[in-house]
Amino acid sequence: MLEDKILVLDFGSQYTQLIARRVRENNVYSEIFPYNASLEKIRNFRPEGIILSGGPSSVYGKDAPIPDLKIFDLGVPILGICYGMQLMAHMLGGKVAKAAKREYGRAELIIDDNSDLFNGIAQPSAPNAERTVVWMSHGDRIEKYPAGFTPMAHTENSPVAAMANKKRRFYALQFHPEVVHTEKGREIIRNFVFRICGSKPVWTMKSFIETAKKEIREKVGNQRVVCGISGGVDSSVTAVLVHEAIGDALTCIFVDNGVLRHDEAKKVEQMLKKSFRMKIKYVDSSERFLKKLKGVSDPEKKRKIIGNEFIRVFDEEAMKIKNVSFLAQGTLYPDVIESVSFKGPSATIKSHHNVGGLLKKMKLKLIEPLRELFKDEVRVLGHELGMPDEVINRHPFPGPGLAIRCISDITKTRLDILRKADVIVLEEIRAAGLYDKIWQVFAVLLPVKSVGVMGDERTYDNVIAVRAVTSVDGMTADWAKIPYDVLGKISNRIINEVKGVNRVVYDISSKPPSTIEWE
Fold first, then answer.
1. Catalytic residues
2. What structural domains and CATH numbers belong to the chain?
3. How many Å apart are CA 225 and CA 466, to the nearest integer?
């Protein structure tokens, strides 16, 4: 069991997951609990330190999230961020008030005490070096800090932009150190983790693999496991990790749900069966899925139908294998967080295929070896397991597949159009050397038609939208600045080679306010 752990209490910030990821970047394990987690659960986690996240609330709000006051008596260092800072001040006897001017975005932080938390962040002897750029997002500010606290930094609008009670090892920041816009944010979090909490960098992928394999073996015993594979990074890494742990006691089941990309089954079989010598059972359930999806245009319904049907197929196929008791699944930590989040924090934008689609009366027990990992950590894990770059660096692909890229009604004809367009998009992006520079790129078939002219004939055909984004973790994203000549080739090929399409458009919206997927 890891002794060096940092706990993040979630108060609803859109950046909460990012805080945990920043801690993990230092090879120190971190988990996120909802703010109202019981004191017993927090004690049992045995954290070396606690971070209170930001959030949209005011400490004086009617439904303001307030944790157990006794967390301040646990004897561990605590770092409050934005709302977490205001909460710390409010609960420990300070005073929080509405700021005269809401502070949002970039701000210049003037460091008054560069010890401990700000160690190495600024050198007062150098001209202007005691100033650094941070990212603010708050409407309240600290009017009076609690007894025992001293200010550590300020901005033009916030007289107390950072404060500390060094004796109790309580620190608080009015800005977000976890976002890339805060120039020295990573260093500040590193100082909290190592200098203040005294944690050691012992959480590595190598140690994770050994621990995970041991846990899988102990849980499975002499029983068998089935694993659903789709060709995506998460399911493929899950399969390889479980196979390393129990060998032939694992059978992989590939379900063709009718909404996969072109030649998906063939590529998956080649990678897992030939490279890793794994047992794979191919099940063609495409007609069954498409029948269930007929006439369904609502994206949430699509997700739930595919998720539930996926598990039903598994249940049926697994029962044909002797002594099977477990289903291995590629659930990731963000899925877990959003599926158990309390009212407010990390609001669920859409149902997750891995968690939300499970049947209540499923006959198999779950094994989710990746449920503690973020996407980028899964890629590192895959490399450690010796998996090929083509799989590890593959762009994220949604559980519901092309069903949520075929906007509105789903038919085999519309899916075939989308598949052909999707192949062209990926071919041209790879040919231009852009695939590894883009987080995600794909085609979307829109539920509208447009007038066109081909030869001397008037056409009234489908519209394909191309979506490409750059991102670090998928939590925020910007549209990719693909060169015009590449976009031109994509458009020209789709219109000429995909029958039924006479117009191609490019999506230039960012996340937020848009999402990466269209549905």
1. 82, 176, 178
2. 5-196 (3.40.50.880), 205-392 (3.40.50.620), 405-506 (3.30.300.10)
3. 39
